[in-house]
Design a protein that fits this description.
The chain is mainly beta. The chain has one domain: PCu(A)C copper chaperone (Immunoglobulin-like). Helix content is 14%, strand content 49%. The protein contains one helix and ten strands. Bound molecules: copper (II) ion.
Length: 148
């Protein structure tokens, strides 16, 4: 019983130490860098890319879903190597660990399905990212072709 109590106390202490390092980083300090959506025509699908950064390396958060008025459905996709062919597949959630995760062509991306209108390079569209800790984050995505 005593041992269990000690272990609990230790767990609480270590949790506290981690929390102190990150302070509010796990809840609000989330940054979306280089948000970009590939241009595409009405009724087609397209991909959105960005880097999701957290202030603290030890902080974690999870991207639960994304939504946008611009299309009929939004999914989070990843690519898997299927016998040498890269295929997209939907993923339920994306964990952000070690402070950063990148959404890039050929990797993770936010898939905008069934565009309601043409997306033209140079314009800006809104996508909402829903995080477990940070909550809903509205981001302006530049429409343009990725460098890679
Ligand atoms: Cu996709």
């Amino acid at each position: 019983m005593k041992v269990k109590l000690l272990l609990t106390a230790f767990a609480l202490l270590t949790n506290f130490a981690a929390a102190e390092c990150c302070s509010e980083a796990t809840t609000k300090k989330i940054h979306i860098e280089h948000p970009l959506v590939r241009p595409a025509q009405k009724n087609k699908n397209t991909g959105a890319y960005m880097s999701i950064k957290l202030d603290c390396m030890k902080a974690t958060d999870t991207l639960l879903s994304a939504e946008s008025e611009i299309c009929t459905a939004v999914e989070i996709h990843d690519h898997i190597n299927d016998n040498g062919i890269m295929r997209m597949r939907p993923v339920k959630t994306v964990q952000i660990k070690n402070g950063e995760i990148k959404f890039v062509p050929g990797g993770l991306h936010v898939m905008l399905m069934g565009l309601k209108r043409d997306l033209v390079a140079g314009e800006t569209i809104k996508i909402r990212l829903n995080f477990e800790k940070a909550g809903a984050v509205d981001i302006d995505y530049q429409v343009g072709n990725p460098a890679v």
